[in-house]
Design brief:
It holds the Pfam family DctM. It is a single chain. By secondary structure, the protein is mainly alpha-helical. The chain has one domain (2-429). The protein is 76% helix and 0% strand.
Length: 432
């Protein structure tokens, strides 16, 4: 009864519009209070303890740093220079600007690891450029949002950091390596329908009239941005710093590029950058902390074992259970953000994964791919919200274009499920 009350209260609060983090904390606290009604005060002491324990983890220090990196590179002008360089390589023509949008978003994934930050940085440059070239704004917003979704797969990734905290068997370096190949495949899969749709519907008719940047000057201008992923990922691989320390290195590198090299960030801009990053980081970490209370109540009420037992013995078999979990996450991904999905469902489904002996690194990539899909799946699509706001179009106008991009990334998800080595080959090769 108490277990049912836990989920009823959580879902009820969500339905009436209570923020996810608050709903998690209130439902968990209420369940703890009722379960310990005879010693209510002592039972409730677990709430602040688990609130603190939820965020008192070393890998989580990287989250506010990578959020700050995303904000810094958004304002530094790196995205615009990368776009010019990519345009100099691929040239002009129908479908080239959507290709460039996805490619630049993938590259920025190697700097910040934040989908919304990437959508803002790329969308601020590419949506206006595609509008001038004759692309419909809803299509442009869809392509930018989908491209930015690859950021949580291509390292560094905030989603992988949170998953590693929830599943200690999967290390951050192993997850970062495992996400590289699926992330690149996801980007390539998005490029194909983006270019095909552009040419099929006659978009970008004016693109040929736009000037093509010169190669060498654009390479020189973009070199500082091109060096960022090499520094961050190469430094981690060489053992110069941990993923958490890499986030700090990226912050100082971004400030150097923005303030000294490009001089696009002024000292007066620092307060705004720090404030925006602190607000977003606080929201993320508050949800993480309150989800710790919810997860502790699940464990205390012994709800995880009965749920695991019921699913494993449902008669669906290993493949059927995996399909069931994917369908479940696809459904909730339409209404919850990726971080909330991880925090709510990973404690519930990891025991199921352990029963079947699924590799935790591979399973983490599967879950992250699903979260990436959710980032541009209406109605609650954080990347799509950002790009639609920049394009000044309603989200429902993007559906006819988004479905093609969702289908393309879904094929990558199916491929990684059928061929686990797509995710596991690189971490095994690197010895993680």
């Amino acid at each position: 009864m108490i277990g049912a009350l836990l989920f009823i209260v959580f879902i009820g609060l969500m339905v009436i519009g209570v923020p996810v983090g608050v709903a998690l904390g209130v439902a968990g606290t209420l369940a703890i209070a009722i379960a310990n009604v005879d010693v209510q005060w002592f039972g409730l002491l677990a709430v602040p303890q688990n609130f603190y324990a939820g965020i008192a983890k070393y890998p989580l220090l990287a989250i506010p740093m990578f959020v700050l990196v995303g904000s810094i590179f958004d304002r530094s002008g790196v995205a615009r220079r990368l776009v010019d360089f990519a345009t100099a390589i691929v040239g002009r023509g129908p479908g080239m600007l959507p290709l460039i949008s996805v490619a630049v978003a993938m590259f920025l994934g190697g700097i910040s690891g934040s989908g919304p930050a990437c959508a803002a940085a790329v969308g601020g440059v590419m949506i206006a450029a595609m509008r001038r070239a004759g692309y419909p704004s809803p299509f442009s917003a869809s392509v930018v949002a989908a491209g930015a979704a690859t950021d949580i797969l291509i390292p560094p990734s905030v989603a992988f950091i949170i998953y590693s905290v929830l599943v200690p068997q999967a290390s951050v370096p192993a997850l970062f390596a495992a996400g590289m190949v699926p992330g690149i495949l996801a980007g390539l899969a998005l490029i194909i329908p983006a270019v095909w749709l552009s040419r099929r519907h006659g978009m970008g008719a004016l693109e040929r009239n736009l000037p093509r940047p010169a190669f060498w000057p654009s390479l020189k201008a973009a070199s500082w941005g091109l060096a960022a992923p090499v520094l961050i990922l190469g430094g981690m691989r060489m053992g110069w710093f941990t993923p958490t320390e890499a986030a700090v290195v990226a912050v100082f590198y971004g400030l150097f590029v923005g303030m000294v090299v490009y001089r696009s960030i002024k000292p007066r801009d620092l307060f705004v950058i720090l404030r925006e990053s602190a607000e977003l980081s606080a929201v993320i970490l508050m949800v993480v902390a309150l989800a710790g209370v919810f997860a502790w109540s699940l464990s205390t009420l012994s709800l995880i074992d009965p749920i695991t037992h019921a699913i494993v013995n449902s008669g669906l078999g290993e493949t059927g259970v995996l399909i069931l979990l994917i369908l479940l996450l696809m459904t909730v991904g339409m209404f919850l953000d990726g971080i909330s999905i991880f925090l709510i469902f990973v404690p519930l489904i990891m025991p199921i994964a352990n029963v079947y002996g699924w590799d935790p690194v591979w399973f983490g990539v599967i879950l992250t791919l699903k979260v990436a899909l959710g980032q541009f799946t209406p109605p609650l699509a954080v990347n799509l919200m950002v790009s639609c706001r920049i394009a000044q179009v309603p989200m429902e106008s993007t559906v006819r274009w988004v479905v093609w991009l969702l289908g393309a990334m879904m094929l990558v998800l199916i491929a990684v499920i059928m061929f686990p080595q797509l995710a596991l080959w690189l971490p095994q090769k690197l010895g993680y």
